[in-house]
Amino acid sequence: MTAFEHRWNARGEGYVAAQALLLAGIVALPLLRPRWGTPRGLRVAGTALVLAGGTLVGWSGLRLGPNLTPLPEPRTEGQLVQTGPYALARHPVYGGLLLASLGWALAHGHRGALGLSGGLALLFDRKARDEERRLTRHFPEYPAYQRRVRRFLPGVY
């Protein structure tokens, strides 16, 4: 890792920048180049995913409270939250954002936004792995939590 890369991503700023760009693209692509004729069922399913994902993000953010940070580096004074949505998945904010981005792409029937949602999933997987290394250093009880709770989807992944 170069000195620039180390400074840029010391606390995970690079992940946050990439995440912001991908999310902006996911939202903007269907608005800039709309696709007409999306089947009603796909619009309804996509809208349901957007609502479910948004609800999960909101619930997770509220449950984290002052521990919430966009960076994978935990707050020095933070606590490990293992209740609410965090009893079901270790990264429910990421899971909620993935559901919402997938739903947005489907509701608009936009392949480009769907592709960017796939890119966001890959980014979140990498960011979560980095975050988990940091959380393991910060919280001795984290490895036991990892063994008990899946990363994004309860019972699946």
Automatic annotation (TrEMBL):
The keyword ATP-binding does not apply. Pfam families: PEMT. It is a multi-pass membrane protein. Keywords: Membrane, Methyltransferase, Transferase, Transmembrane, Transmembrane helix. GO terms for biological process: methylation. It is found in: Endomembrane system. GO terms for cellular component: endomembrane system. One of its GO terms (molecular function) is methyltransferase activity. Coiled coil: none annotated. The chain crosses the membrane at residues 14-32, 44-62, 102-124. Its main location: membrane. Gene3D superfamilies: 1.20.120.1630. This is Protein-S-isoprenylcysteine O-methyltransferase Ste14. The lineage of its organism: Bacteria, Thermotogati, Deinococcota, Deinococci, Deinococcales.
